[in-house]
Design goal:
- There is one protein chain.
- The chain is an alpha+beta fold and 165 residues long.
- Strands 3-4-5-7-6 form a five-stranded antiparallel β-sheet. A two-stranded antiparallel sheet has the order 1-2.
- α2 runs antiparallel to α3.
- The chain is 28% helix and 28% strand.
Length: 165
Amino acid sequence: MTSSDLSGEVVRHAIPLHRLGKDAEGRVILRERKGPVRFQFQYLGQVVHGDIEDSETHSRLRLRAELGRVPYTAESGDWRFNVLALAEAANEALGGVVRITPDQRIIAVYDDEMMSPLTGALLIGAITQFLLHIRPYLELILMIAPRVKKRRVPFTFPAQPVKRG
């Protein structure tokens, strides 16, 4: 389905992103949606989470990029010191967008009011600008900081006891 498949009335006006959805067969449809649109993608191997609030009166884009994690002192005190120094320098250079979460993840945050209705061009432009600003620091952090594990798998006991002997 393309924009030419939509009714003439819809094609002449900007389509608010919160109204787009898909039906059971995977076709794009217009619908009423309550709440923000959430999405995620990968940039240089790291996950970027997005959140869009789009209404007739305002639009807001929030992005959160996972840059890496701070190593624990038990892993290496010097390594931890260097990663913290880099995160602090990145935060200062980028105007306060870099944060360290309680679970020691380094994240960069973007939160901005945008023109309404939010168009694809505005959205792509804002995301690109954010990514280009964080890229040099992300590359440095990726060189020295440990990667964030994608998923923690809980330990489970083997189904059969291990026989020795």
